[in-house]
Amino acid sequence: MPLDGEWARSDVFRVLRDICSNANLDWPQMARDYEFDLASLDDPQGTVPIAAWHAVFEHIANVLGDDAVMFDLFNTIDIGCFSIFDYLFACAPSLREACQAWAKFSPIRTNAYRVIFEEDETGGFVEWPILEGRGEWRQNVFGRIGWATQQIEHALDMKAPPILIELATSQPNCTSNFQKKYQGRIKFGATRNRISFPKTLLSRPLRRHDAHLYEIILTSANSELERFGQFESPLSRIANEVSASLSTGTCTLPLISAKLGMSQRAVQRLLEKEGTSFRQLSEEVRRSAAERYLLGTDLPMKEIAYLLGFSELSTFSRAVKTWFGVSPKKVRDAPRSRSPAAANSTTGRKQSLQRPRVTVATPSAVRQSAATK
Fold first, then answer.
1. Could you give the C-alpha distances from 199 to 2, 127, 150, in angstroms and in order?
2. How many domains does the chain have?
3. Domain boundary among 214, 229, 244
4. Is 80 exposed, middle or buried (0-12, 13-18, 19+ CB in 10 A)?
5. Which of 84, 130, 256, 259 has its CA 20 to 30 A from that of 236?
6. What spans are recorded as compositionally biased (Polar residues) (predicted)?
7. Residue 299 lies in domain
8. Does 207 share its domain with 323?
9. What are phi and psi of 194, to 5 degrees?
10. Mind listing the pLDDT tens digit for each residue in 188-209?
11. What is the residue-averaged pLDDT of the chain?
């Protein structure tokens, strides 16, 4: 596919195809339904649209009938399935430098977000930003966390290192071996997707480090960064900055533009080109976050209102009533299965969230939106 819009590397689909080879998965039909190039799975530099990247994970979990399966599938794959990106971590000098490499080189994996690595006096964390408004991402992030934790386990040569895992989604109905292994150290319904490390672990040397080999790996990674880094999505930067700014009260066009280093008019022109506006994009991000908090967490209503940038609970309640037709309490109390089937329900999704063209998650919604432009 052309490297425009939001994309992710397609090798993750190849891995899913290979490890689920005995499952009843119709990949040609999935390619048609979710609008990605099937041939890209075997292209070392292939990419797929970010909406398909999310939707296929939900679809496969649904077919397998296990809403926790992605944890185990990706926590047990071989190191090297994702080529140079795997070795950037496994062969780094220390855990700190391995996490720094993830953050620096994440643009070779996707242009929809940047991995974050930060540390303070007590420890550090790796965080995957929440992609509001790009469809249901729950199964995809389960897979990413399973894979990242496996990388950490191998690099440190520890079966279950002392890490804390936070997930901004609800606990699955099923229970994976991964959850059992990290029992008591996985927090569902959090406000972020993050793995945290104690400070003593960050300086720990990694067992596979070889200085000469790592220089070769870095050279190769920089070459890929030159190729894929140029396809950054400005729209993703805007949407992600809006999402990150909700609770700070700085989610305005002048402030977001300043954070991005762009003029207000440049931001407006970019959004107009994509068939939306700053107001529409901000509203969509806030609405998507509201749905996630209400259905995927047990956070108090006042805290959700704060996280969404509402100064008053009454204002938040009116907004939810406008978006979903019912009060926040009724949204949270409404019967909803936590199974993959419910998460992947196209009909239910289109009724609750009618996204602008750049953020829809289902093929039918994409075509319907394009037809109305």
1. 42, 16, 20
2. 2
3. 229
4. exposed
5. 84
6. 344-354, 361-373
7. 234-334
8. no
9. -150, 145
10. 999 899 999 999 999 999 988 9
11. 85
